[in-house]
Structure to design on (282 residues):
């Protein structure tokens, strides 16, 4: 069914009204809070599995330290050395530890599932098995992406040798091309994650075209929020002066809340679109 401009405006208006009436901002805060709680167990679980795939060498630890150095200095100074000692001793989390890490990190996925149920107007159809299966699949995907994030950047930077001896213009153009490919790959991953979560994590059956439309809108919101928040922090914010070393955690909470609000807002629009199509409105 094609979506006319008048019908699209009506669906967006109804979705926005449902988002506000259903306390969408409160559910967004719940998702952001549970993401913060689940980040540490997910990090341990993902990094443990990734290290088993890559091997016990310094590359995973050095890459993780480089990532955390700018965003979470305490983690770079304390977490990474402890992980290095853990794997040097041959210790693992074991089956019980893995199950406990999965269970402790499940709160984020469960919060998303519950919030989607409310935003799409079907809170009584929440399915635990679906959300649990989705969470396990999500962790497996994060393991693959983490391994790629550790291995690919050094190889990606090594491609710069292809421009050795060329002019500065060609070198800049080549690096711009590599950055564009990386951004396109990240956008593709985020878009696919949005489509899969809207379609399979929601308690009701969502049409593929509606899930794709909602995911595209969510992706646009993400880039707008990222650009706006970056501009705010650089030009107007005094958060780094107020919070000091906790600045990265404060930024994480704020960005997670804004992303969650955008995600649920698009979910509310998808729910309104699904109801509109089911009713056969012109």
């Amino acid at each position: 069914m094609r979506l006319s401009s008048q019908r699209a405006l009506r669906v967006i208006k109804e979705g926005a009204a449902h988002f506000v009436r259903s306390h969408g901002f409160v559910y967004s805060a719940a998702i952001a809070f549970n993401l913060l709680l689940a980040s540490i167990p997910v990090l341990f679980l993902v990094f443990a599995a990734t290290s088993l795939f890559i091997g016990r060498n310094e590359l995973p630890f050095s890459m993780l330290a480089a990532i955390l150095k700018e965003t979470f200095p305490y983690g770079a100074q304390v977490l990474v050395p402890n992980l290095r000692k853990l794997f040097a001793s041959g210790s693992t989390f074991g089956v019980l530890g893995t199950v406990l890490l999965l269970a402790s990190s499940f709160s984020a996925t469960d919060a998303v599932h519950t919030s989607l149920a409310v935003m799409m107007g079907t809170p009584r159809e929440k399915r635990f098995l679906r959300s649990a299966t989705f969470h396990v699949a999500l962790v497996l995907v994060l393991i693959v992406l983490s391994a790629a994030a550790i291995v690919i950047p050094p190889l990606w930077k090594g491609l710069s040798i292809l421009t050795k001896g060329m002019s500065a213009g060609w070198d800049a153009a080549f690096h711009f091309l590599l950055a564009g490919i990386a951004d396109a790959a990240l956008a593709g991953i985020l878009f696919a994650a949005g489509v899969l979560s809207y379609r399979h994590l929601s308690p009701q059956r969502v049409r593929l075209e509606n899930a794709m439309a909602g995911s595209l809108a969510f992706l646009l919101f993400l880039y707008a929020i990222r650009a706006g928040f970056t501009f705010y922090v650089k030009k107007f914010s005094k958060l780094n002066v107020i919070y000091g070393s906790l600045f990265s955690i404060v930024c994480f909470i704020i960005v997670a809340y804004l992303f969650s609000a955008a995600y649920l807002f698009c979910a509310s629009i998808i729910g309104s679109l699904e109801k509109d199509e089911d009713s056969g409105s012109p």
The mean pLDDT is 75. The longest helix spans residues 168-201.
